């Protein structure tokens, strides 16, 4: 795949970039290794000062970077601005909390004495250069939610961003440089996917984190496993959205529209399978379909647009194949299931709701990365849970119920990294984020995320005089 900015709303190639040579990559790895040797010894206060400065710069750049993001991957301008603002918030959160999150841990005095020590504690130390392989769908947020904790922990970052967002990738490197981070602490590597293996196998790279597809995750995990290097993977999702009889159906339907179509449905944590109890199915379906039909699809630079284009022609083709397969096998489209007739250029697709789905359809098993909702009717809670868990993924889940017993049951039985009640899944710097099953392993954000790439070091002192 060429490293280029191609406007998804028009299909026009705006800018192309040459990939770094092997020699240039080696130079950047040398720079990262040298930077880590010094940066790892800096204080939390110094790192926080730099990260807060980066947050201030990003806040000032909000409009400019939002327009870059929109031109590269098609996100409506309002959503791109919101993404930049969320990154500012996360930077400031980690600048404020990192020292506390990584403070020495003290075992109970009785346990210290029982170990034969006069003193013992656990210290979190940085591990070195971390390779981040990041996707295009949230091109600033995905990077910042790695970079903010990694840099505050004393690590250095190497960014291999998606090839269709090169301007955003270069902006992020420049942002950290302008903020005063030393040369080599955060670098963008403009390379194709074929270069990842060599970089990850390089002894100067300590670990890797990847957000992306299941095949990409398998590849990175296999290479890192062979090299015995730590990885964190956040892969696909086919998140369930359960609506049960005690739900506020009108609000559940209104939220469902946003949950399915945010970022044109191109989000791992977007709700994709809507599992609705038969007692509220008709009311929910009517409101949900009406909301999906009312969305305005079009130019992402138009402030009135709700849903922009998909990021690529190939992405739209993949989505169309899933929908067409479902329709051939008996599914019914309540709305959408086509390209908008008033958008002859660009990679647009209408918000779609599919019903009468069966387990032999591809869309039942595969992630639909676009504004296509799968709608199921169930008879009871047991059936809802069984259907929710009938997937190889387990990123997050949503459930609408005011019944506390049902809530406890769902916390216990839903196989997912998150359970969000009476609202939609969202990431926040204070809450750990990640999945189970083929949605990956490890966690980003919160204290769990900053500790993923730390050397958890046991420190033990024996009696000074034997």
TrEMBL record:
Query: What CDD domains does the entry give?
Result: ALDH_SSADH1_GabD1
Q: Which domain of life is it from?
A: Bacteria
What GO annotations for molecular function exist for this entry? aldehyde dehydrogenase [NAD(P)+] activity; succinate-semialdehyde dehydrogenase (NAD+) activity
What the entry lists under SUPFAM superfamilies is as follows:
ALDH-like
**Alphabetic keyword roster:** NADP, Oxidoreductase
Q: Which Pfam families match?
A: Aldedh (PF00171)
Question: Which positions fall inside the Aldehyde dehydrogenase domain?
Answer: 3-459
Spell out the InterPro entries in the cross-references. Ald_DH/histidinol_DH, Ald_DH_C, Ald_DH_N, Aldehyde_DH_dom, ALDH_GabD1-like, GABD/Sad-like
Q: Which PANTHER family match?
A: SUCCINATE SEMIALDEHYDE DEHYDROGENASE [NAD(P)+] SAD (PTHR43217)
Family (UniProt): Belongs to the aldehyde dehydrogenase family.
Spell out the protein name for this chain.
Answer: NADP-dependent succinic semialdehyde dehydrogenase
Q: What is the lineage of its organism?
A: Bacteria, Bacillati, Actinomycetota, Actinomycetes, Kitasatosporales
């Amino acid at each position: 795949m060429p490293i280029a900015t191609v406007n998804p709303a028009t299909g026009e190639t705006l800018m192309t970039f040459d990939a770094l040579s092997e020699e240039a990559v080696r130079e950047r790895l040398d720079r990262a290794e040298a930077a880590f040797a010094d940066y790892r010894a800096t204080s939390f206060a110094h790192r926080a000062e730099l990260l807060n400065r980066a947050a201030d710069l990003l806040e000032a750049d909000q409009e400019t970077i939002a327009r870059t993001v929109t031109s590269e991957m098609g996100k409506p301008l309002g959503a791109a601005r919101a993404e930049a603002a969320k990154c500012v918030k996360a930077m400031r959160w980690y600048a404020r909390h990192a020292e506390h999150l990584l403070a020495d841990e003290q075992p109970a005095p009785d346990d210290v004495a029982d170990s034969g020590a006069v003193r013992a504690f656990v210290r979190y130390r940085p591990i070195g250069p971390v390779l981040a392989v990041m996707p295009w769908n949230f091109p600033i947020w995905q990077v910042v939610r790695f970079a903010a904790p990694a840099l505050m922990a004393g690590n250095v970052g190497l960014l291999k961003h998606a090839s269709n967002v090169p301007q955003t990738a270069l902006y992020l490197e420049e942002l950290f440089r302008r903020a005063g981070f030393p040369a080599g602490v955060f670098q963008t590597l403009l390379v194709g996917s074929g270069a990842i293996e060599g970089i990850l196998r390089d002894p100067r790279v300590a670990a890797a984190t990847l957000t992306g597809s299941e095949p990409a995750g398998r590849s990175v995990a296999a290479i890192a496993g062979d090299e015995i290097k730590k990885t964190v993977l956040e892969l696909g999702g086919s998140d369930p959205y359960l609506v049960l009889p005690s739900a506020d159906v009108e609000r559940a339907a209104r939220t469902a529209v946003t949950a399915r179509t945010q970022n044109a449905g191109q989000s791992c944590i977007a709700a994709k399978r809507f599992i609705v109890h038969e007692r509220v199915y008709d009311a929910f379906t009517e409101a949900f379909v009406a909301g999906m039909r009312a969305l305005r699809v079009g130019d992402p630079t138009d402030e009135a647009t709700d849903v922009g284009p998909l990021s690529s022609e190939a992405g739209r083709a993949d989505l169309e194949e899933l929908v067409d397969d479902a329709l051939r096998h008996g599914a019914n489209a309540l709305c959408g299931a086509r390209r908008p007739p008033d958008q002859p250029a660009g990679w647009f697709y209408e918000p779609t709701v599919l019903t009468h789905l069966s387990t032999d359809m591809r869309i039942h098993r595969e992630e639909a990365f676009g504004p296509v909702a799968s709608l199921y009717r169930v008879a009871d809670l047991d059936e809802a849970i069984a259907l929710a868990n009938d997937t190889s993924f387990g990123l997050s889940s949503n459930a609408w119920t005011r019944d506390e017993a049902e809530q406890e049951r769902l916390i216990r039985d839903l196989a997912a990294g998150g359970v969000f009640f009476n609202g939609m899944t969202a990431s926040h710097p204070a809450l750990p984020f990640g999945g189970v099953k083929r949605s990956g392993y490890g966690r980003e954000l919160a204290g769990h995320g900053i500790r993923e790439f730390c050397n958890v070091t046991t420190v033990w002192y024996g009696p000074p005089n034997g």
